[in-house]
Amino acid sequence: MHVPPIPHLTAEDPELATLVEAEATRQHDKLRMIASENYVSEAVLEASSTVLTNKYSEGYAGKRYYEGQQLIDPIETLAIERAKSLFGVEHANVQPYSGSPANLAVYLAFLQPGDTVMGMSLPMGGHLTHGWSVSATGKWFNPVRYAVNRESGRIDLDEVRDLARAERPKVIFCGGTAVPRTIDFPGFAEIAREVGAVLVADIAHIAGLIAGGAHPSPVGHADVITTTTHKTLRGPRGAMIMTTAAHASAIDKAVFPGLQGGPHNHTTAAIAVALREASTEEFGRYAHQIVANAAALAAAMTERGFTLISGGTDNHLILADLTGKGIAGKPAAQALDRAGIELNYNTVPYDVRKPFDPSGIRLGTAALTTRGLTEQHMPQVAAWMDEAVTAALKDDEATIDRIAGEVQDLLAGFPMPGYRAA
Ligand SMILES: *Cc1c(COP(=O)(O)O)cnc(C)c1O
């Protein structure tokens, strides 16, 4: 049963309520390993569904375009102050609707159409909004892209520096969506300083690890930090932009009125709740456990013959090339989903296959760590993955069904926030 319960929705719109309840059960019964996903707390769920959704608040605290902000102003200010103190930044904007609009605000703040922006190439692990061709950021600006080293699977800062010197980008993005290794923020900062670029650290994936002290912080190195709030940070779907005082006004103007209208106040409230949770000692332990689980899973997968990009992981994320297993990423991801193990197919660096049918899978340990799984469970997870992939090659649906049952049995012992067994 969904928690908080949804009796009114069930009475008024049973068709939708049935789908929501089924999704809660699905999230409970599956080993959720999509690297960008998590389970938020019930307090975050409650804040997300409050009457704050009824209110329009264009502008910022003390400077709004509508009346009735007596309580919205302190709510948004609470979120901002918590972000500032958690990450140790001078300024935070908590209004971006999500990670992609947050990054777009950075373009609006610092670039003119046609200006050069440097980011990691999408198939190497970067994000669409770091200048990929199908994105507005790649169409309206002049993107130049760095890769990872073919042998090490890691970013080669000498190559980044050479490219930056040659192309003189105005903005450099570091961070990505499929980067299993620590981002060298001081290294990127040195390059950005040399070429006079604004350094943007996009910490969408690793924000929770940074908050919990399990990944180095970009603060003091990056001029601007963008992040989603719903990945390892374990908040509602949303985003934040954090900056030095010098860039505060440019970023605020870019978010509103540059790109957005009214902020989503219910989301702002839920972000405030998540930031309070992320400032606890318990969250620090959680962040370290995510990394310990990923390391244990990477070791167990390697033992089972999986090829990991860069040979392992420093964070929550694992990128595996399945070529050696004789299966492509997509059929593997689909079979794993049927086996109760949810992850996504993904390109690997220098992939010889097509983006919609690539060689790899990407997985992460943030959500399963929220459920309470630890290192001791990771050999079993790797064994299931190995068995399911092998079964897929033989069309052995009986084995895949059996694994789904075993996954469900294991997870029955690990409560899910947002769900209670009926
Ligand atoms: C997830 C992600 C984003 C975009 O977030 P959305 O909320 O999906 O728009 C941006 N940058 C990086 C590095 C991400 O991982």
Automatic annotation (TrEMBL):
InterPro entries: PyrdxlP-dep_Trfase (IPR015424), PyrdxlP-dep_Trfase_major (IPR015421), PyrdxlP-dep_Trfase_small (IPR015422), Ser_HO-MeTrfase (IPR001085), Ser_HO-MeTrfase-like (IPR049943), Ser_HO-MeTrfase_PLP_BS (IPR019798), SHMT-like_dom (IPR039429). The record marks H230 as: Plays an important role in substrate specificity. It catalyses: (6R)-5,10-methylene-5,6,7,8-tetrahydrofolate + glycine + H2O = (6S)-5,6,7,8-tetrahydrofolate + L-serine. Pathway: One-carbon metabolism; tetrahydrofolate interconversion; Amino-acid biosynthesis; glycine biosynthesis; glycine from L-serine: step 1/1. Gene3D superfamilies: Aspartate Aminotransferase, domain 1 (3.90.1150.10), Type I PLP-dependent aspartate aminotransferase-like (Major domain) (3.40.640.10). It comes from the Bacteria. Its cofactor is pyridoxal 5'-phosphate. The modification N6-(pyridoxal phosphate)lysine is found at K231. It is found in: Cytoplasm. Keywords: Amino-acid biosynthesis, Cytoplasm, One-carbon metabolism, Pyridoxal phosphate, Transferase. Residues 10-385 form the Serine hydroxymethyltransferase-like domain. It holds the Pfam family SHMT. (6S)-5,6,7,8-tetrahydrofolate binds at L122, G126, H127, L128. PROSITE patterns: SHMT (PS00096). The keyword Acetylation does not apply. CDD domains: SHMT. Its EC number is 2.1.2.1. Catalyzes the reversible interconversion of serine and glycine with tetrahydrofolate (THF) serving as the one-carbon carrier. This reaction serves as the major source of one-carbon groups required for the biosynthesis of purines, thymidylate, methionine, and other important biomolecules. Also exhibits THF-independent aldolase activity toward beta-hydroxyamino acids, producing glycine and aldehydes, via a retro-aldol mechanism. Homodimer. This is Serine hydroxymethyltransferase. It comes from Asanoa siamensis. The gene is glyA_1.
